Amino acid sequence: MASSLTVDIFVSVDGWAGSDGLPAYFGYPGPQLEEWILAELAAPQLVVMGRRTYQALAGLPEEAHGKSWRRIAQLGKTVFSRTLTHAA
Fold this sequence. Notes:
The protein is built from 3 helices and 2 strands. By secondary structure, the protein is of the alpha+beta class.
């Protein structure tokens, strides 16, 4: 059985991919983006992420837990890290 790896990265027009304190999706969430995210997350999958992404998602406050967050929480995950000793 063949597997595929799909990488989603959000980059601004000038090529900037993010920084500390930058809100998710560069601060421009919208209904079309949320629909796309939910459609992509509907398929069975394993989420692969680095430590910083994992900790950012795990640290979101309860009021930020929308439909896409709940779906990501349900999916299996592999977290790559040299320093993280435990991932809940």
